[in-house]
Amino acid sequence: MLEDLSVEDGGGGGGDFSHQVTTVKSAEKPPSPRNETKLCGLQNQGATCYLNVLIQTLLYTPAFREPLFHLTPKDLNLPANYNDQTSLSANGGSSLKVRKIIVELQRLFAEMLLLNQQACSSIRLTDSFGWQSHEAIDHHDVHELNRLLFDAIQKSLQGTKQSNLIRLCYEGSTINYTQCKACQKIFKRSEDYQDLPLVVQDSPNLQTSLANIFTIREQLIGDNQYRCSSCANKLCDAEKWAKISKLPPILTLPLQRFVYDIKTGSRQKKTTRYEFPFEIDLKEFCEESVIETNYELFAVVIHQGTCYSGHYYGYIKDIDHIGTWVSPPPPSSPSTKSANKQKPTSSQNSNISNTSPNNNRNSNESADTKEETMKKLDLVKTLLLSCDDYVTIDYLLQIYRKNTTTSWNSTRGVHGSFTKFLRSYPDVFQVDDKRVRLVERNCDMDIDMNEIDEMDFESSQNEIPSNNDIDNDEHWFCFDDSFVTCVTREQIKKHYGQNDCAYMLFYRRKDRNRSKMDCSDNTPYSIPQWLFDEVLEKNKILDEKREAYEKYKNQLLVTLYPSEWFEVKDGCRLTLNNNDQVLFPDKYGEHIFDKRTKMNDFISKLEDVYGIGNHFYVAKKLRSGQLHVINELVCSSSDKTLDKSDLSNYHNIIVYTSSSSLPDTVLQGEEFEPIMLTIVYGFPDAHVHAARLQTIKHISKNTTLLELKEILYYDYFGHDDPQKLRQIRMGKLNLEEKNNRKSRREYKVDEEKQTLAQLRLQDGDTLGIDDKNSFVPNWKNVSSNSTNMAINQLSLTVKNSIDTNNTKPMTYSCLNTTSIGHVKSMAIQAFNLSIESCMCRLHIDDPDVEHIPLYDQQTVDSIEFKQNNTNLCLKFGAPLKENDLLLYILSDRDPCSLELVVDKNITLSHLWLLIKQELNMDDTDNEYHLCEVKPTLIDDGIPLNDFDQTLAANELANGAQLTMRPGSVAKKNHVRLKISRIIDKTYQPNEAIHTEPKLEMIELEEIFELPVISPFNVLRESIAKHIEYKVPVGYSRDVKPLDFIRLYSIEDNRTVSIVHEPILTTLKQAKVQDLDSYAFELLGHPESLAKKDLLLNIVYSKDEDENYFQHQFEVHWPLKENITAKYEYLENHVLTRLSSFMSNDLHYKNVSKQALKVTLARYFPDRAQWIVIESGSSPSSSSSNTNQSASKKNKTSSPSTKASKSNLRLEPYKLTDLTVIGVLEGEYLTANDFDTPYDQQTRKEIEHDKQQNRLNRERNRTDNNDRSQANGSSSTRRKSPQNTMRITVDDFDS
């Protein structure tokens, strides 16, 4: 039966051909299995390609991998429940520390060897390093990681039987010789190494780099003489050389590609040609005692990109034949290569031309521009290779700027905008609205033969050995993060001289007697049993997930219809032949089949169910819900499956029994699909014939426009007339008004020979027909009248989601003007449900919009069906009235979403009250706000805060999903301000009144919420009203309470600035944000600060011991727009205020401003220093000798700076609000005269802190150099612009 063809648990199962359909609506795609190489890659966590290539190299190093696997759980201090994911963190109550790095390295190696997955994750390994998530997106150097990782492994293995693993595998030694030419004595110094860095610059190959270190002798003469201990520490001529005294089994050779260019002052990457052999004899570079000197290359790390960012991948030799190697296709010939060189050029030219903003640009652009374009393209590709999948275009442009000295805007005229440039290469970049990624991330793994010049090609051809010369067992693979491909030696040699160049080389000692690896079933690859069992369990889970996903992916939902339901209309469509609701009979309806079923088997099973001799037609559902026959299912000689047939696209089958067959006149096939058109008749007497004319026409898209015109002419006039037909014209109409005009497009005579498909007409288009004299004048009236005539028949399918025991869907043929309420009533009746109409509602049967209910009063034609899907679903729920909205509220107070049916005309505040009532919240609880959740946004939308407006004004639609987020928000176009009152100012110490005061403030309980268009005066007025302040007696009526309030903007309980308000600056203009903090001070007098005014703090007169200032007062220095802050104006205002202060506060008598001779100084609290403010003019020549001497002394010994002759707001004084100005009586005083013991002590503390910071930097630099020297690197370590890489290791010394 048909259930034999269904997927497991797929509907339609059972001998009675049941309509119970169970589908898997969604399934997470499992990781892909390994490719044909049978090897596993590593997932890139963001920018961890450098880690991936090193881990792959270690895995395929048997000398490292096998001893690592010999460590038992006891060696690693694993607890008894070591298979538990939480065991490593909980540690099972054991006092021993788990060797996390080794455990995770073992686990990752085991997964990479056995887990049937294209790429494994290294997250658990990096977690054992102590890395945070952000550290996985930093670019780092693979050589640096190699040293850090080896150090971490060595520390983690302390106290185990493999504690010497790194030393035994990678550590060698060299001997440095120095021979004094005076006494001929030779001095030796031995050094250990784990890698030998080689200089690439000015070296053509690996042998030359080694010879420069270990064969060429350096002469120590001249300024570089050697101090010989045997010659009484005298400087002598000497000779220096080095030899390798010990070779490790694994020889690591980093290539120093990055150099510092003194001319440009920047780092550069050397990509000059540099050859390296696949076999090498190191005998000439070693001591005679070194016997085994033959090595073979087994791993090459490739770097692609610049010295600041890029991408790493590697070529690794599969020594143990773990994978399956297939020979790659041979390289193309020189002629093919030359031809291929031209192809990208033309396409690139066209792309560049298309992206240019100038359409008339000359296509023969300069070669420099083309070369620059390709450089930009390569750089952008390289940057994307270092990223994981999608990145934002803004982020890509940001890292592009960091890797080039030229801004993109400077070349915008040539390449267009950055986004446009990316879109001009669709084969390379996949771009959506805001993100971009590479189309194929492994596109650069295949070597581009076009980049090899003729000399390189001929050289490579000469270097190709015969099949007899190459060991057939030599298998090389390219590991590029998740991707693994087969390569040959020739492909690796192409990296002798490219931007993708070799960065690290790994050689292994030749071992012809190496035994074949143990791959028995019990212990494959020597993997510990506990890891083997763990990976087997993971493979089992993967297989189950893939099987479930395959079933989900191969589900084919098909609806089977009985032919008795339909009648043929217009020769190309099938419509229901009744207007009643009908349930699908047994054996019909929706069924799920497996796409992999062979067509012949499928037809055979259909015949078993419906009878031999029946015909089965594949049909497409039209926009009207009706069907169009595509073809008949017939048996064939091929093994075609359902997914290769039309059934996989159209999902509908009409079963014609032997008694009823499809007429031969019915047009079948995609090319005869009918198009639903609205016809507007523009003839003068169209209103007379309106009753009998059909304004909705279903016409085959293979029909020509002339044939359609003949049909419409006959329908209107009832006869044919070829002569009058020539006077008839047709046009495509758009009923949307633009500038009070109806737009149209009249078809020309030569277009009448084209088909409707060629004219690109679609369902729902409107065509007009009339004679040439009446088309335009009558169009406006005709179009408005035609809307009432557009009546069409629709076929709907309604599913029953209320009664789970009766899931047969209903079909219903109705007019497009039928109301949803009527369709609902028909469905209740057809399903025989004993519920009232007010207890249920209809939804569109579409996962994207199924949560949005339909209104009972809306008509069928208002439903926005997708992809001709005219399916509805009946569900429980109160029906919606005309103004109702169904809202879904998500909150942390209820695990399920809250459904609310509300009137769209209620305010947002009213909605909040309803939500609080439903969630049993306190009405005064305002610590939440609402945001709308939209599928098009990654994050929630902006907060809804227009509380006084209706839900419609807040743009909330039916079915909107709202989420409650913590924190209240201000009303729209309002800000809330936190206000504190300054009640006291204190100084530390109390005598230091010239320093910044510490404010004692009390925050007001009330949050002041004001419109953003309010000036600060409104805030002052609100504060005065809140504290109930009244103007003291004695002031005029014009003085207001707000004039006594000084407003400060504060941050961290410190005053930042004083709010000036000369022209009623608004909060929006001042860029005030919600919940900003302000403080106010209540003054004893009214104050009005203009825009340019300054409020200065004046300290005056020191005590007898000159330890501190005695008096303090404020000076309001008014400055108009066109007045510069000159010294003369400042001095005048200070003296005026000082004389008033001395008379009124100090009670001095006969104080004259003209008689006062003072010196002014500006105080800088951040560095505890004074600068004397001098006048712009020098002392007059008639001054006394004493004054001249004092002036000279002041100029030579005073640390003060000469004042600018213009603006004191500028350097060096930079006067601002609340600046402290010291005033001392006397002329020509120095900064030392203003200094206090507090200032001297503060400067000492500042200097001490600076010194400590310098010492800390020196200490850190020394530690880094010592660590580098211990690892065998130069003390002048190459700086990196990235964050420092680290690996955290527990202490296992005990």
UniProtKB/TrEMBL annotation:
Bias-annotated ranges (Low complexity): 346-366, 1175-1207
Gene Ontology terms for molecular function: cysteine-type deubiquitinase activity
Record SUPFAM superfamilies: Cysteine proteinases
One Pfam family cited in the UniProt record for this chain: UCH
Extent of Basic and acidic residues compositional bias: 1243-1266
Superkingdom field: Eukaryota
Domain USP: 40-510
GO-annotated cellular components: cytosol; nucleus
Spans annotated as Disordered: 1-37, 326-371, 1175-1208, 1243-1294
A GO BP entry: protein deubiquitination
InterPro entries per the UniProt record, alphabetical: Papain-like_cys_pep_sf, Peptidase_C19, Peptidase_C19_UCH, USP, USP_CS
Biased composition (Polar residues): 336-345, 1268-1286
Protein name in UniProt: USP domain-containing protein
Native organism: Rotaria socialis
